[in-house]
Each structure stands twice: as C-alpha cells, then as structure tokens.
Model the fold of this input.
Amino acid sequence: MWRSQQAALEATGQEVFAPDLPREPLEVGFEAWARQVLGEIEGDFVPVGCSMGGYLAFELWRQARERIRALALLDTRATADTPEQRQARDDTIRVVGEEGFEPFWEALAPRLFAPGADPELVAWARAVAAEQPLTALVAALETLRDRADSRETLETIDVPVLVAVGAEDAITPPADAEDMAARVPSARLSTIAGAGHLAPLERPDEVTRALLALL
Done:
C-alpha cells in the first residue's frame, strides 16, 4: 500500500523499509511485531504507520524511542478497543474462520474508502487483501483487538510528529486525529480532503508531500 510513497521517497535518497506484517511464523501482538521490525532496521529511523501501522508505531516508540527521529501517524487512533469493539473483532474472527475472505471484505470495504473512490483502486486493494492467508488475517484481528491504550504514550513523544487523517475516514475519524495532535506538543495535523481510511492509497501525492515535509 506504500508503493507510491516508497518510490517518491527513494527518489530523494531516503532508504525505505516496508515490512509485510504479520509474517511467518505468525505471532500475535504489536509487542512481537515491533521486535521483529526493530531486529531488521539498523540505526535511527522514522516510523510511518497507517491505521494498524499507527498502533505499531506507538509500540516502536515504547521499545526504541532513542532511535526514532520523527513519527507519522495516519488514519489511526491512540485509544484501545472498547468492549463493544472487542466483541466486533471476535465476531469478525468468527466470520473469517467460518465463511472465509469474501464476507470479511464485503463488510470492511465500504468503510475503508471515501464515497466515490476509484473502483480500480478498490479492486486493487481487495486483491492485495485477498492474498493474505486467513491465519494472518485472524492474527491481525487479534492483535488489533488486544492492543494497548496509547494515550499516555502520546504525551511522552518529543520528536516531530505528523498526524494525518482522511476527511472522510469512517473508521478513525478526524476527531481521533485532532485528539492525538492535541496530546503531542510537536504534532502537526493534516486533514486530507477526498480520502477515507487509506489516505496513502486514495491521495498518494498529498501524503507524499506531507511525509517529505516531515522529513
């Protein structure tokens, strides 16, 4: 999903690492995922995370803040799942296990994109998601369900932070981004018109410009 940004950043001389998570052998939990990533990156770096990538960025900060020069948090939130949201994750896990990918995607897709999204983009995103093993989808859902509340973590961040959100994000709406930005003294808030929950895909040029400005 970072193909546009990766190419643009590498063209400016940046080294870009885009991990595919979760990976084999499957582990559940952002703590384990962060250890995997930190074991593969040398030196200082800038975590850039969208949605669940933002939750991973919080954990990277907790484990290795001395290596992090800046943070980009896109279409994400700092709060943990509520009891109702945790139950919804469990219901989704059951659907994936019993009925497979199609019902999962049909329920998720309408909330991912802004109204009027490019059908070719939606089809591409579906194809990428469909490549993931069902066991990996379940591990991701369990990791999302059990994540920590990161609001206290926000207050410890003392590096430049970009908080960006699609104006049409129905999953982590602009109010969530505004709350995060208000808790980080060094944060800059960017609301991206015409984007839903996947701003890097829907408005790649705007996201790239915001990342270059952060760097």
Remarks:
- The chain has two domains: 3-79+149-214, 83-141.
- The chain has eleven helices and four strands.
- Strands lie at 48-50, 71-74, 161-166, 187-192.
- The longest strand covers residues 161-166.
